[in-house]
Amino acid sequence: MGLVAAFIRFFLSPFRALARFVGAGPARTVEKSGAGYVAKGAGEAKFAEDKGGEPEGVSFLFKRLARPMLVERTAADMTLEEAQEVSAEAAKFYTYPFPLFARADAFYEEIEQDYINAVLGRAEGSADANYLRIMDQFRRELNANTARLFLVYTPLMLAAAIGAALTARAMVSPAVEGAAAASAVIAVSLALLMLLYHWPYKVTQQQNLLGLDNYITSKFSRINQNFQVAKRRAMNVERNMRMPQAEQLKAEAGVWTVSYQWFAMRLLFCEMTVRNTLYQIRRNTTLYGIAGMAFSALLAGALAFAASTAGLAAWWEVAGAGAFFIVIAYLVIMAHATRETLSVLQPTEWNRFHLVDLHETIRDHVGEDKLQIVTFRDRNRLE
Fold first, then answer.
1. Where in the chain are the domains?
2. Other C-beta atoms within 10 Å of 216: how many?
3. What's phi and psi for 62, nearest 5 deg?
4. C-alpha to C-alpha distances, 92 to 13, 81, 126, nearest whole angstrom
5. What is the Cα–Cα distance from 323 to 325, expressed in whole angstroms?
6. Segment 76-127, tens digit of pLDDT
7. What's the predicted TM-score (pTM) here?
């Protein structure tokens, strides 16, 4: 196996060099440089349009997306007025009357995503509006790249392979040598398809997902940091205040308490958006594979009929060659397209919702306040 892997790496080395030359570098380059590039934009003061680290473009038949940059204010930089805006966003979530009777012309994950978009304020241009747009853009483009491979390029290569095989068979005699030449053409076509799948399709998809992974990592980390800051301010707001500031204390404590709860809920909804996005990518990849096999089978049948009518070959020979190509292409070469591309994501590195321990924070917060109330009451009784 080591010798085979070395041979494959040697065979692909010229194409990898060409990819670096045109800007489609290996996936690990994105992995090394993406986090730094994302972190560079993390300190922006306003919620603005995300800008990628490099321009979008087509990398050899498939679209390569720019790496998103995080633009989100830290809670440490927030004033009380801005924290009140965060609290107002939380109020929209807690009072949002989501429809109980959803439309019937959509999948469930789309209904769920509509709810998430509403409570996160996508239409109002909230702090998460650009995140939702980026996730939607990546979902569409990743699916589009897969659709091109499964529904366009593979059937075209099948048609070209059958046409070249018939030509080779007609040019070589006797019949046995012609069949061998046709088989060689089919084998070469499958090898080219394997090359197309591993590069540029898989490389481009992994580059896109590595950029997205860096963005999600930074996004979740920033929300978690904001949660921690808001939690500390909520639990310590009374330290620098006196009784004459009771109303101010009440208002400020309420604002920061609602804010840290909202930061935690934002993290949950952002995580659910990732789940919906990845589910749709997996589902669509399966559907594209089934549709591609069906379309390729129809194409092979049409070519078999045409070849038989023209007297170039028996219909069953062409149909058999087409079936062999389809089985190897879709069930062997591209069988694990989703798993191999999504494997670059590192969800264990994300600061996910279950790690913020919101329930523990609320319990400690309320418990500490009640303890202080009882302590203050008993102290006054003793005096």
1. 2-382
2. 27
3. -130, 145
4. 55, 17, 12
5. 5
6. 777 888 888 889 999 989 999 988 888 887 888 889 999 999 999 999 888 8
7. 0.80
